[in-house]
Each structure stands twice: as C-alpha cells, then as structure tokens.
Amino acid sequence: MSYWGTMVAARPHGLLIDQDGVSGFGHRHRWLRNLSDGWQMLETSGYDDPPDLRSSCEVVAASTGHPVLAVYISDDSCAAMVAAIPGRAGPLTHLWPENETCGRYRHQPRDMPEPAGRSLDVVVGELTAWSAAAGLQADVSRLRQLIGRDPDQTHGQIVDLLFETVKALGVRRIGRTFPWSLPAFDWPFSSVMFSLGPAAQARQNAKYRAAGVKCITPVQPWETAALALETELWGSLYRPNVEVAALAHRAACLLAAYRAASDEETIAPETTDPPVLDEISLELLARLESRLAEGTMSPGSEEIEERHHADAWATEPE
Predict the structure, then answer these.
(1) What percentage of the chain carries pLDDT values higher than 90?
(2) pLDDT of 174 over the 70 cut
(3) Three-class HEC string of the chain
(4) Is residue 266 over pLDDT 60?
(5) Burial, 3: exposed, middle or buried (Cβ in 10 Å; 0-12, 13-18, 19+)?
C-alpha cells in the first residue's frame, strides 16, 4: 500500500497538533495516537512535501522541552529520519539503506541537500542517546537489527519498520487512533479535505501567477477562503466541541463559490456576494444537521476501513 507523509513522535503540552512547530511538518493531520508516558504520535502531510524535518524538529523540541523524532516516508519505499533534542537536531538519516544516498526520491525541500549516507554504528548510537534523553530505555540490539535491515527486504514495509523502531526506542505502548470530531469523509468536508477541489485549485492558480501565466485571473475571494478553511478543517479533526454544522455550512458555501467561479470565464476580485446554495446542497446540509441533533452521526465505511488499517499497529486490544 502506497504511503506518503510524515510521522512525528513528541511529548507535547496538550494535543500534538496544537504544538508550536508542528505545522512545519504539514497541515493534513490524519492520525493522532497516545504513546506511553505522555508521548504522542502524529501522522501528517502537506501540499509541498517533503518538509524541512530538521527545522520543524528544532521548533517542536524547543517548545516542548523534550526530544522529537520525525520521519518522512516516500511511497512506503524509503524514508528520511531526524532525531532531535532541545537545542540540537541531528542530521537526516536515510532509511533504507542508512549508509547510502537515495537516487529515487526527494527527501528534502528542493533548495536543500539530500541526506548523505551514515554508518550503522553512528545512527544506532544517535538513536540510543535520543532514547536516553527522552527518559526511555532503548533495545540496542533490536535497533541495530532494524536500522541495518537489508533494503531489498524493506520495500512496502517502511511504516511497519518505523513502528517497530519506535518500540525499540523504549516506547512501551502505541495507542489506537483518536476519534475524529468531524465526519471528514462525508460531504461537504470530503470535497474540501480530500479531493482535488478548491484548495488544490487555489494553489495551482498561485503557481500559474508566479510563473507569469497571463490568462489566470487575479486572486479570487474563494481561493483565500479555500486555503484557510482546508487548514482549519484538518486542524479541527481532534478538537472537542467543534461546531460541525457551522463548518459544514461554510464548506458548502465555499464549494458553491468555487463552482460559480468555474462556470465563469472571469470573476471580478471585488465580488463579495454570498454564494447561493442549490437545493441538493441545502437538503444534504439539513440531513447532516438532523443527524447531529439526533446523535446518529456515525463514521462512514471509508473512515472505518482506513482507521482499522491505521490501528493495526496499536499494542492495545480493541
């Protein structure tokens, strides 16, 4: 199964998604777990991956006062890892293999150098020291076995190996994923968060403008709103007392504005009239609000399937 994204282990104040510096890893905070002793693990991604792991780790470590481990995974084929403690972030380590550079994927932002090969002894020593700084106790022989794995035996198993590495660092418990506060796979949220919809188009338009493409209109109100709402929806997935109905109405209005802009060759930037929701949208919103009021809103089959897969690494029973 293809996997792209960043896994971050840290000991935050509150939820890891709200910790200073976490946005540097991405804004699509898909899965969040409790680990042992106040540690949490976040799986996230961004539209401009790969992220600058070292800088983000430095900020998170400084804001928490505890070590941070971050890994960016490319297609579940290989990864780049940074182990950081407050005041210092280690160099990027490529996995797998750890002793060579990667000639297949990009593991850093385009203006930054790719991770160089490092010796197994150095990497294991760094991780062992990171574990001690985190108040954990590493299984050194297990770390050597995992980090020194033959790369021919790791393709499609990177995520599994990383969870095993976290346990080898001394984490005793990997919890199940936190429940979502939004029905993210239901309309209208899914059309903003998962599809190539308004936010993706807004970013594409920005690239065209930066490249000097003359046929692109000036920045439209819906573009600014799309980027802001997409980030807010992802950030709201784990926040209690989220006003789901209000967010759904905003998302539906955004989609209506996006459709209106798509139907017109040009939309004046000063257009501020509120979008008109069609009958289907109004009916869908009414159904969602009714289910929320009745307390009958339940996860869709797609969420259940993906969550079941994400919880396969949990060390606690269902």
Answers:
(1) 74
(2) yes
(3) CCCCEEEEEECCCCCHHHCCCHHHHCCCCCEEEEECCCCEEEEECCCCCCCCHHHHHHHHHHHHCCCEEEEEEECCCEEEEEEEECCEECCCEEECCCCCCCCCCCCCCCCCCCCCCCCHHHHHHHHHHHHHHCCCCCCHHHHHHHHCCCHHHCCCCHHHHHHHHHHHCCCCCEEEECCCCCCCCCCCHHHHHCCCCHHHHHHHHHHHHHCCCCCCCCCCHHHHHHHHHHHHHHHHCCCCCCCHHHHHHHHHHHHHHHHHHHHCCCCCCCCCCCCCCCHHHHHHHHHHHHHHHHCCCCCCHHHHHHHHHHHHHCCCCC
(4) no
(5) middle
206 vs 115: CA distance, rounded Å? 30
User: Mean pLDDT across the chain, nearest whole number?
Assistant: 91
| CA dist list (Å): 318 to 21, 175, 297, 313 | 32, 10, 21, 12
- Which distant-in-sequence residues (6+ apart) come within 8 Å of 47 by Cβ? 199, 200, 203
Per-residue HEC secondary structure of 63-88 comes to HHCCCEEEEEEECCCEEEEEEEECCE
142 with 168: CB under 8 angstroms? yes
Q: Are 8 and 44 in contact (CB under 8 A)?
A: yes
Q: Which two tokens stand for residue 279?
A: 């009958």
CA 57 from centre of chain: 15
Give the per-residue pLDDT at 15: 95
* pLDDT tier, 262 (very low <50, low <70, confident <90, very high otherwise): confident
Full-model pTM: 0.90
Quick one: pLDDT at residue 154?
A: 87
pLDDT at 214: 79
**Average pLDDT estimate for 34-57:** 95
